[in-house]
Amino acid sequence: MTEKNITIYYKPGCSKCRATLGLLQDSGKAFDAVDYYGTPLTVEALRELIVKLGLSVRDILRVDEPLARSLGLDERQPPDDELLRIMVANPDLIQRPIVVRGEEAVLCRPPENVRHLLEK
What we know:
About 35% of the residues lie in helices and about 15% in strands. By secondary structure, it is of the alpha+beta class. The protein has a single domain, classed as Glutaredoxin (3-Layer(aba) Sandwich), CATH 3.40.30. Strands 2-1-3-4 form a 4-stranded mixed sheet, sandwiched between helices. The mean pLDDT is about 95.
């Protein structure tokens, strides 16, 4: 069986991201880390992550962010394509961290959710 690549999409400075990175390091498994602030996601890349998560676009929107409230995203329901563009342009609006292994991904809130992917 081939070992599936593991990738974490994270924000530097985020406590949940740091905790998840620590769990990945402690696992001894090789992984790639993508700071999606330094290397911004494209709309298509974010859409692919959402498909792997098995969630809706709205599910990964951080509606409690002040920016989300100022844009009215906590109340209005823009189409998914518009919401994706807004999230890519404003990465603080994306739930994090996201860890991918093969065709599966998990939102690591809490960080312990990463264990599901590490056991595979």
